């Protein structure tokens, strides 16, 4: 009787070989991904560190004489530790810093640095301690709720900046500047950093969406026409009352004098 011998078909792969190939493929893919990820992270860290180093050099050359080499502050300038990148971007980006002269508050003037240099100084100051960051673009687009923004502005801002954002006088020679021609980014940064006498509106006071609504209101107001005629600088009832006193009463006095002269 012939012996029955089973032979494995040629060309068929063993199940163990398939598992081994699968494991090898996973290891190769994972290793390649890890290599590229590590390389990209190293390049990003190096670029960020380079920006911080350049910012430190710019700060030392232009700001350290008042704020100190380590931004610790002095008798003539406050500490910048913890103010964040947003404060630097606002103060330097609007020309308020460096100061032209000591005064009640920094005045807006032509900026002394380009945006790349401002970003570098902001990166260095931000590396010292946590603080408000430069806002994300999604919160700077004027596509929020203008009605809610108008209400929030009247409640939180109008007592200083005027309901139309035209600005106004404060105490001790200080003033609330006009916000009518200010960029959305700088409006947002002012809210989160509180320059001069302005209070800080962090995300617990006004959410990022609320700040976007305020920006939307200001942008819409700036593009709206005045339904009452001449807006008189948007200074409100004071300007309107002064206009009536000067021109209205002046006209009445002039008519009275004219009538009196005619009667004689």
Description:
A hairpin with a 5-residue loop joins strand 1 (168-169) and strand 2 (175-176). The chain has a two-stranded antiparallel sheet. The protein has 2 domains: 39-133, Orthogonal Bundle (Cytochrome Bc1 Complex, Chain D, domain 2), CATH 1.10.760.10; 135-226, Cytochrome Bc1 Complex, Chain D, domain 2. The protein is elongated, with a radius of gyration of 32 Å. Helix 5 packs across helix 8 (208-223). By secondary structure, it is mainly alpha-helical. It has 9 helices and 2 strands; from the N terminus they run H-H-H-H-H-H-E-E-H-H-H. 55% of the residues lie in helices and 2% in strands. It has helices at residues 15-62, 64-67, 84-93, 115-128, 146-156, 158-161, 184-193, 208-223, 237-263, and strands spanning 168-169, 175-176. It holds the Pfam family Cytochrome_CBB3.
Task: Write a concise keyword list for the protein shown above.
single chain; 264 residues; mainly alpha; Cytochrome Bc1 Complex, Chain D, domain 2; 2 domains; 55% helix; Cyt_c-like_dom_sf; cell membrane; Cytochrome_c_Oxidase_Subunit; Cytochrome bc1 complex cytochrome c subunit; EC 7.1.1.8
């Amino acid at each position: 009787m012939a012996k029955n011998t089973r032979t494995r078909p040629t060309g068929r792969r063993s199940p163990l070989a398939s598992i081994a190939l699968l494991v090898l493929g996973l290891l190769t893919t994972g290793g390649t991904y890890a290599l590229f990820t590590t390389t990209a992270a190293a390049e990003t860290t190096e670029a960020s560190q380079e920006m911080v180093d350049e910012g430190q050099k710019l700060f030392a050359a232009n700001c350290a004489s008042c704020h100190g080499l380590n931004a610790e502050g002095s008798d003539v300038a406050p500490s910048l530790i913890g103010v964040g990148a947003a404060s630097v971007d606002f103060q330097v980006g609007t020309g308020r810093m460096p100061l032209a002269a000591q005064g009640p508050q920094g005045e807006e003037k032509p900026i002394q640095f380009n945006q790349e240099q401002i970003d570098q100084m902001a990166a260095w100051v931000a590396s010292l301690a946590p603080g408000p960051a430069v806002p994300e673009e999604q919160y700077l687009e004027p596509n929020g709720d203008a009605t809610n923004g108008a209400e929030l502005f009247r409640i939180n801002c109008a007592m200083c900046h005027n309901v139309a954002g035209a600005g106004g006088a404060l105490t001790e020679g200080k003033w609330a500047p006009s916000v009518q021609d200010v960029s959305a980014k700088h409006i947002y940064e002012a809210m989160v950093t509180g320059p001069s006498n302005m209070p800080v509106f962090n995300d617990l006071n006004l959410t990022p969406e609320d700040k976007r609504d305020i920006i939307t209101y200001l942008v819409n107001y700036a593009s709206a026409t005045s339904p009452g005629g001449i807006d008189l600088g948007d200074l409100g009832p004071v300007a309107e009352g002064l206009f009536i006193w000067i021109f209205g009463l002046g006209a009445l006095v002039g008519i009275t004098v004219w009538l009196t002269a005619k009667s004689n």
